[in-house]
Protein backbone atom coordinates (compact mmCIF):
# COMPACT_ATOMS: atom_id res chain seq x y z
CA UNK A 1 0.00 0.00 0.00
CA UNK A 2 1.42 3.38 -1.05
CA UNK A 3 0.57 6.35 1.15
CA UNK A 4 0.67 9.87 -0.23
CA UNK A 5 0.14 12.94 1.97
CA UNK A 6 -1.15 16.22 0.54
CA UNK A 7 -1.36 19.40 2.57
CA UNK A 8 -2.59 22.86 1.68
CA UNK A 9 -0.47 25.54 3.33
CA UNK A 10 -1.64 26.93 6.68
CA UNK A 11 -3.68 30.13 6.77
CA UNK A 12 -1.83 32.95 4.99
CA UNK A 13 -2.01 36.65 5.81
CA UNK A 14 -4.20 37.11 2.72
CA UNK A 15 -6.45 34.17 3.63
CA UNK A 16 -6.93 36.02 6.90
CA UNK A 17 -7.69 39.28 5.07
CA UNK A 18 -9.85 37.31 2.62
CA UNK A 19 -8.00 38.48 -0.49
CA UNK A 20 -7.53 36.63 -3.77
CA UNK A 21 -3.90 35.54 -3.61
CA UNK A 22 -2.84 33.31 -6.51
CA UNK A 23 0.87 33.78 -7.26
CA UNK A 24 1.29 36.65 -4.77
CA UNK A 25 3.99 35.48 -2.37
CA UNK A 26 2.39 36.23 1.00
CA UNK A 27 3.52 34.78 4.32
CA UNK A 28 1.73 32.54 6.80
CA UNK A 29 -0.37 34.17 9.53
CA UNK A 30 0.19 33.23 13.19
CA UNK A 31 -2.74 30.84 12.86
CA UNK A 32 -1.20 29.37 9.71
CA UNK A 33 2.08 28.74 11.55
CA UNK A 34 0.14 26.96 14.32
CA UNK A 35 -1.79 24.90 11.75
CA UNK A 36 1.43 23.76 10.07
CA UNK A 37 3.00 22.77 13.38
CA UNK A 38 -0.16 20.93 14.41
CA UNK A 39 -0.14 19.04 11.10
CA UNK A 40 3.43 17.93 11.80
CA UNK A 41 2.50 16.83 15.32
CA UNK A 42 -0.42 14.72 14.06
CA UNK A 43 1.69 13.13 11.34
CA UNK A 44 4.39 12.29 13.85
CA UNK A 45 1.96 10.89 16.42
CA UNK A 46 0.39 8.70 13.70
CA UNK A 47 3.83 7.31 12.84
CA UNK A 48 4.28 8.92 9.40
CA UNK A 49 7.73 9.48 7.91
CA UNK A 50 8.66 10.81 4.47
CA UNK A 51 11.49 10.16 2.01
CA UNK A 52 10.97 13.26 -0.13
CA UNK A 53 8.80 16.39 -0.19
CA UNK A 54 7.45 18.52 -3.01
CA UNK A 55 6.27 22.09 -2.74
CA UNK A 56 5.72 25.25 -4.79
CA UNK A 57 7.95 28.32 -5.07
CA UNK A 58 5.63 30.32 -2.80
CA UNK A 59 6.64 30.89 0.81
CA UNK A 60 3.32 29.99 2.41
CA UNK A 61 3.67 26.41 1.13
CA UNK A 62 7.45 26.24 1.64
CA UNK A 63 7.16 27.42 5.25
CA UNK A 64 4.24 25.08 5.96
CA UNK A 65 6.37 22.17 4.78
CA UNK A 66 9.33 23.35 6.82
CA UNK A 67 7.33 23.71 10.04
CA UNK A 68 5.68 20.34 9.49
CA UNK A 69 8.99 18.58 8.85
CA UNK A 70 10.54 20.31 11.85
CA UNK A 71 7.82 18.91 14.12
CA UNK A 72 8.52 15.47 12.63
CA UNK A 73 12.31 15.89 12.99
CA UNK A 74 12.55 15.27 9.24
CA UNK A 75 14.01 18.56 8.05
CA UNK A 76 16.83 16.57 6.45
CA UNK A 77 14.77 15.00 3.65
CA UNK A 78 15.11 16.29 0.06
CA UNK A 79 12.65 19.05 -0.82
CA UNK A 80 11.84 19.73 -4.46
CA UNK A 81 10.31 23.12 -5.27
CA UNK A 82 8.48 23.77 -8.51
CA UNK A 83 6.33 26.60 -9.83
CA UNK A 84 4.18 23.84 -11.33
CA UNK A 85 2.72 23.33 -7.86
CA UNK A 86 1.97 27.04 -7.38
CA UNK A 87 -1.52 28.27 -6.60
CA UNK A 88 -3.70 28.94 -9.62
CA UNK A 89 -2.86 32.41 -10.97
CA UNK A 90 -5.86 34.58 -10.08
CA UNK A 91 -5.17 37.26 -12.71
CA UNK A 92 -6.43 40.77 -11.99
CA UNK A 93 -8.37 39.51 -8.95
CA UNK A 94 -5.11 39.11 -7.02
CA UNK A 95 -5.13 41.42 -4.02
CA UNK A 96 -8.87 42.10 -4.11
CA UNK A 97 -11.13 41.21 -1.18
CA UNK A 98 -13.43 38.26 -1.93
CA UNK A 99 -16.35 39.49 0.20
CA UNK A 100 -16.11 43.00 -1.32
CA UNK A 101 -16.13 41.48 -4.80
CA UNK A 102 -19.23 39.47 -3.80
CA UNK A 103 -20.95 42.69 -2.67
CA UNK A 104 -19.96 44.45 -5.88
CA UNK A 105 -20.48 41.71 -8.48
CA UNK A 106 -22.67 39.18 -6.63
CA UNK A 107 -21.87 35.93 -4.85
CA UNK A 108 -22.68 33.94 -7.97
CA UNK A 109 -20.01 35.75 -10.00
CA UNK A 110 -17.45 35.24 -7.25
CA UNK A 111 -18.38 31.55 -7.12
CA UNK A 112 -17.80 31.35 -10.91
CA UNK A 113 -14.42 33.06 -10.58
CA UNK A 114 -13.40 30.83 -7.69
CA UNK A 115 -14.80 27.47 -8.62
CA UNK A 116 -15.76 27.15 -12.30
CA UNK A 117 -13.52 24.74 -14.16
CA UNK A 118 -12.79 26.78 -17.26
CA UNK A 119 -14.23 30.29 -16.94
CA UNK A 120 -11.27 32.65 -16.52
CA UNK A 121 -10.86 35.44 -13.99
CA UNK A 122 -10.08 38.91 -15.45
CA UNK A 123 -6.55 38.87 -16.92
CA UNK A 124 -3.56 40.94 -15.82
CA UNK A 125 -1.72 42.97 -18.43
CA UNK A 126 2.06 42.43 -18.74
CA UNK A 127 2.69 45.99 -17.52
CA UNK A 128 0.78 45.34 -14.27
CA UNK A 129 3.08 45.38 -11.23
CA UNK A 130 1.48 42.06 -10.21
CA UNK A 131 2.75 40.35 -13.39
CA UNK A 132 5.66 38.11 -12.35
CA UNK A 133 7.51 38.48 -15.69
CA UNK A 134 10.72 39.81 -14.12
CA UNK A 135 10.61 37.69 -10.96
CA UNK A 136 13.87 35.65 -10.94
CA UNK A 137 12.09 32.53 -9.71
CA UNK A 138 10.30 32.34 -13.07
CA UNK A 139 13.36 33.24 -15.17
CA UNK A 140 13.57 29.76 -16.72
CA UNK A 141 10.04 30.01 -18.12
CA UNK A 142 9.41 31.23 -21.64
CA UNK A 143 7.66 34.62 -21.33
CA UNK A 144 4.55 33.10 -22.94
CA UNK A 145 4.41 30.49 -20.18
CA UNK A 146 4.10 33.06 -17.40
CA UNK A 147 0.36 33.38 -16.99
CA UNK A 148 -1.73 36.54 -17.00
CA UNK A 149 -4.45 34.41 -15.35
CA UNK A 150 -5.31 30.75 -15.02
CA UNK A 151 -8.51 28.75 -14.91
CA UNK A 152 -8.56 25.55 -12.87
CA UNK A 153 -8.30 23.77 -16.23
CA UNK A 154 -5.03 25.62 -16.96
CA UNK A 155 -3.82 24.66 -13.49
CA UNK A 156 -4.64 20.99 -14.19
CA UNK A 157 -2.59 21.28 -17.38
CA UNK A 158 0.56 22.28 -15.52
CA UNK A 159 0.09 20.21 -12.32
CA UNK A 160 -0.71 16.86 -13.95
CA UNK A 161 2.35 16.55 -16.25
CA UNK A 162 4.49 17.39 -13.21
CA UNK A 163 2.69 14.73 -11.16
CA UNK A 164 3.28 12.16 -13.93
CA UNK A 165 6.93 12.92 -14.59
CA UNK A 166 8.33 14.06 -11.23
CA UNK A 167 6.19 12.43 -8.55
CA UNK A 168 4.61 9.17 -9.73
CA UNK A 169 7.95 7.43 -10.56
CA UNK A 170 9.04 7.96 -6.94
CA UNK A 171 5.75 6.68 -5.54
CA UNK A 172 6.08 3.58 -7.72
CA UNK A 173 9.56 2.99 -6.30
CA UNK A 174 7.98 2.96 -2.84
CA UNK A 175 9.15 6.40 -1.71
CA UNK A 176 6.99 8.11 0.89
CA UNK A 177 5.97 11.48 -0.51
CA UNK A 178 4.42 14.62 1.00
CA UNK A 179 3.20 17.47 -1.22
CA UNK A 180 2.69 20.89 0.41
CA UNK A 181 0.85 23.07 -2.07
CA UNK A 182 -2.23 25.25 -2.52
CA UNK A 183 -6.02 25.14 -2.57
CA UNK A 184 -6.32 25.01 -6.33
CA UNK A 185 -3.15 23.13 -7.30
CA UNK A 186 -4.34 20.42 -4.89
CA UNK A 187 -7.90 20.62 -6.25
CA UNK A 188 -6.36 19.88 -9.66
CA UNK A 189 -4.61 16.77 -8.32
CA UNK A 190 -7.61 15.58 -6.29
CA UNK A 191 -9.84 16.05 -9.35
CA UNK A 192 -7.61 13.62 -11.22
CA UNK A 193 -7.14 11.11 -8.38
CA UNK A 194 -10.86 10.98 -7.51
CA UNK A 195 -12.13 11.20 -11.12
CA UNK A 196 -14.21 14.27 -10.31
CA UNK A 197 -16.03 15.58 -13.38
CA UNK A 198 -15.73 19.17 -14.65
CA UNK A 199 -19.36 19.66 -13.60
CA UNK A 200 -18.78 18.45 -10.04
CA UNK A 201 -15.42 20.08 -9.35
CA UNK A 202 -16.95 23.39 -8.06
CA UNK A 203 -18.13 21.43 -4.98
CA UNK A 204 -14.59 20.48 -3.93
CA UNK A 205 -12.82 22.62 -1.33
CA UNK A 206 -9.55 21.94 0.49
CA UNK A 207 -9.04 23.25 4.05
CA UNK A 208 -5.80 24.95 5.12
CA UNK A 209 -3.17 23.07 7.09
CA UNK A 210 -4.78 19.63 7.40
CA UNK A 211 -2.98 16.53 6.07
CA UNK A 212 -5.00 14.65 3.45
CA UNK A 213 -3.88 11.02 3.16
CA UNK A 214 -4.36 8.92 0.02
CA UNK A 215 -3.84 5.18 0.18
CA UNK A 216 -2.97 4.06 -3.36
CA UNK A 217 -2.58 0.62 -4.95
CA UNK A 218 0.40 -0.36 -7.15
CA UNK A 219 -1.16 1.41 -10.12
CA UNK A 220 -1.58 4.53 -7.97
CA UNK A 221 -5.35 4.15 -7.95
CA UNK A 222 -6.81 5.54 -4.72
CA UNK A 223 -8.19 2.90 -2.39
CA UNK A 224 -8.96 5.16 0.55
CA UNK A 225 -8.65 8.84 1.45
CA UNK A 226 -9.03 10.72 4.71
CA UNK A 227 -8.05 13.89 6.54
CA UNK A 228 -5.91 13.43 9.66
CA UNK A 229 -7.22 15.22 12.71
CA UNK A 230 -10.47 16.18 14.38
CA UNK A 231 -13.36 15.84 11.85
CA UNK A 232 -15.08 18.84 13.46
CA UNK A 233 -12.05 21.04 12.79
CA UNK A 234 -11.92 19.75 9.19
CA UNK A 235 -15.64 20.60 8.75
CA UNK A 236 -15.15 24.08 10.25
CA UNK A 237 -12.14 24.77 8.03
CA UNK A 238 -14.04 23.64 4.93
CA UNK A 239 -17.00 25.85 5.83
CA UNK A 240 -14.60 28.78 6.28
CA UNK A 241 -13.25 28.32 2.73
CA UNK A 242 -16.79 28.33 1.29
CA UNK A 243 -17.70 31.37 3.39
CA UNK A 244 -14.86 33.45 1.92
CA UNK A 245 -16.96 34.09 -1.19
CA UNK A 246 -19.99 35.45 0.68
CA UNK A 247 -20.91 39.12 0.69
CA UNK A 248 -20.60 40.73 4.12
C1 LIG B 1 -6.25 32.30 -3.23
O1 LIG B 1 -5.36 32.18 -4.09
O2 LIG B 1 -6.92 33.33 -3.09
C2 LIG B 1 -6.56 31.17 -2.28
O3 LIG B 1 -5.45 30.62 -1.77
C3 LIG B 1 -7.43 30.13 -2.93
O4 LIG B 1 -8.56 30.80 -3.14
P1 LIG B 1 -10.00 30.21 -3.50
O5 LIG B 1 -10.42 29.27 -2.39
O6 LIG B 1 -10.85 31.44 -3.55
O7 LIG B 1 -9.86 29.54 -4.82
From TrEMBL:
The protein's enzyme class: isomerase
Gene3D superfamilies xrefs:
Phosphoglycerate mutase-like
Output this protein's name: 2,3-bisphosphoglycerate-dependent phosphoglycerate mutase
Enzyme Commission number(s)? 5.4.2.11
The catalytic residues are: 9 (tele-phosphohistidine intermediate), 87 (proton donor/acceptor)
Q: Which UniProt keywords apply?
A: Gluconeogenesis, Glycolysis, Isomerase
The record's PANTHER family line, in alphabetical order, gives: PHOSPHOGLYCERATE MUTASE
What is this protein's function? Catalyzes the interconversion of 2-phosphoglycerate and 3-phosphoglycerate.
Q: Is Hydrolase among this UniProt entry's keywords?
A: no
- Pathway entry: Carbohydrate degradation; glycolysis; pyruvate from D-glyceraldehyde 3-phosphate: step 3/5
* Family to which the UniProt record says this protein belongs: Belongs to the phosphoglycerate mutase family. BPG-dependent PGAM subfamily.
The UniProt catalytic activity note for this protein reads: (2R)-2-phosphoglycerate = (2R)-3-phosphoglycerate
* Matching InterPro entries: His_Pase_superF_clade-1, His_PPase_superfam, PG/BPGM_mutase_AS, Phosphogly_mut1
Keyword Coiled coil listed: no
Name the domain of life: Bacteria
Instruction: Read off the Pfam families from this record.
Output: His_Phos_1
A single Gene Ontology molecular function, please? phosphoglycerate mutase activity
Q: Supply the HAMAP family for this chain.
A: PGAM_GpmA (MF_01039)
Q: Where is this site: Transition state stabilizer?
A: 182
**Sequence positions that bind substrate:** 8-15, 21-22, 60, 87-90, 98, 114-115, 183-184
Amino acid sequence: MIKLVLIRHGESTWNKENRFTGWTDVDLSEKGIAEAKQAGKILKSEGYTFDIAFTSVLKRAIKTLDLLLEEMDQLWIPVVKSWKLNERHYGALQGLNKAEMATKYGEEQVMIWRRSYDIPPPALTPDDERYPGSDPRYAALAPGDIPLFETLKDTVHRVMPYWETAITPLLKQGQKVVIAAHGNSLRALVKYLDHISDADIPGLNIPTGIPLVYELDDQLTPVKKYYLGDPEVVAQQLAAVVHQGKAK
